[in-house]
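Exercise: predict the structure of this protein bound to beta-D-glucopyranose.
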Amino acid sequence: MNSSLEGPEVMSQVARDDKALLTTGADYWSTREVPGLGLPSIRVSDGPHGLRVQDDDNPDHLGLGRSLPATCFPPAVTLASSWDPDLIRSVGMALGREARSLGVDVVLGPGIEIKRSPLCGRNFEYYSEDPLLTGRLAAAMVEGLQSQGVGACVKHFACNNQETDRLRVSADVDERSLREIYLRAFELVIRDARPWAVMSSYNRINGVFASENSWLLSDLLREEWNYDGVVISDWGAVHDPVAAVAAGLDLRMPGQPGDPRVREALANGSLGEAAVDRVAERLRLLASRTEDSRQTKPVIDFDAHHQLTRRAAAESAVLLHDERALLPIDPANARSLAVIGELARTPRYQGAGSSAVNPTRVVHALDALQTRIGETTSISFAPGYALDPNEDATPLIEEAVALAESSELVVLFLGLPASYEAEGRDRTTIELPADQVRLAKAVGDVNPRVIVALSNGSAVTTADWRDAVGSIVEFWLTGQAHGDSIADVLLGEVNPSGKLAETVPVRLEDTSSYLDFPGGLGHVRYSEGVHVGYRWFDARRLDVDYPFGHGLSYTTFEYADLEITVHDLADLIALTVSVTLTNTGDRRGAEVVQVYVGDRSGVLQMPEWELRAFSKVHLEAGVSERVELFITRADLEHFHPDAGWVFAGGSMQVSVGSSSRDIRLQATVDVPGQPVEVPLTVWSQLRDWMTYPVVGPALGKLIEERGGIKGRVGDLLSDPVSQDSALIFPLISVTQFPGFPVSAEEAQELLSRS
Ligand code: BGC
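Solution:
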């Protein structure tokens, strides 16, 4: 870059028209090159779990067939189940290398929406129902990508928690829930990994489009969070480009260079030049951050990336259930193996929509099992069901049952066909397709040794058919090494260590957003507040199919010697939690130690407990390790609508366990905090006025000087039974009663003097 061309002087020399053009891309996937400003064209690409680089001659939007081959890594739903930032960082690095080799400067991901409902059609692209877990894992993805000189673009900022009407709907969310749940993951990723770009979402938030929302894009993102990266709109999310730039959006995508509105607004002064100068500065920063990636193109070892995909998916597999100890498969006890399910030969390994990758290769499960144990085990296949729900499954089920009956062991591949979950549409049920449920029960009736391998991008309940089968492994969507990852786990080469990053409900009706998802008439009310996911199920004491954090292993772990150190108020760390973890089984494995903290301070309505720390620990058989987890003061804060982020301290219940419902050790500690100072206004209650420091005594003195409170308010206050009915009056109301000797104006005056 020519440094002599940088700086505000040059900016003023550039024609306004050029500046206006900076605020929109050049085309579908790139920004404008403005040599006079030292701005190269920057190329972006989907994302998030592999590159979808379009053929330049046919730059369509979703045309999967025309994107260049790239490794299809496991989507976020799968990686999140690893609870392993190191693993995710490695995937991010590999993705960054591929991006660089394809000339991509910014990858449009990760997607970090909170899973408000299991029905969201894009849940496969998102991490978790919990903001801390999402934030920590997505930060690792961003670090991995950016370590290769390629920018991450975290999306979709914010509250794109559903697909239904996502281009118009207003997510109506109170500020506390926004801050603690929906914005928290963005805040953590921005604070910890500094992504170079953020994508604003399509939807409105409390009535205002995210791409034109100055509270979101300027007050919060820039001012409060100090964000210096580029904000890119989702594709087609800008309706009023002038309002968008004024609100803090940098880049409208796809490019609309022919739209005159920003140019006209600059010319007539309704948009200040400072706003577009800021856009230019941020784009320049992005260009300098990604400069290296434009210089050199690495040669990709696609085999190594395929092997990484294989490992990542296997290490993310969640062993839900192994009631009959069928796993891992011992080929000696499985001389005849029935592989049942169309998904074994027509795998589902990624979701549909803008994230779809054209993989470099795909391994089918049937092929993988055949290759691995086909020499010693006789493997037979029956499809059992068709992926097209309109096809009659009865003959397929009959054929599969006959095969199951004559086999020693059954591996049954179940899951969601691609048509069930895709960008642009939400699901309406959390059940598997009815034919598959029928098949599972029928196969389970004739063979007690049935292992189910699940492939789905969003939660499916097993409640109705779980007892018919012996084992269930949730593989989610594995990425392109599908069959090998599954075989690695089923055959015991990889010991499953994944944990659910979202609760699997028994019934859809039990979920927190059931009555308000996906809303209607242009609005969706987040009526459950902060009680999303396990926060809801636990507060309501609802049975779940599988709890948040759940995942079994081929080995066992014991937790002992919980020790909690409570740090001083001056320390950024509030708590250090230590436990001794022992692998008590007979094979190497990994456990995710989870710490949940229940805040009993009563300052706000609190969830029962919340995930505040976790650590994935790999241990050889028989080995113990002392595990230390740190919880910062900021991690314990809640958002008070009048006082901002607060942590009042007090009694905290600390629970350490293997899942949110498998708590192994627990203790209650007293943690120092800061008193919550809610600013006093004339709308504060009389009770708060009386007890407020300085102003309270001043008001009391004034009342006394004027002979005390008389009339009805005075009567109520002097009666212990009735006094509450006066104390709950806002000051502005109580002053209207004859006999209350201070006016609202005088109270206001007292306030401003204090
Ligand atoms: C999606 C984004 C994606 C963009 C570009 C939009 O429809 O919501 O996630 O990055 O298209 O393909």
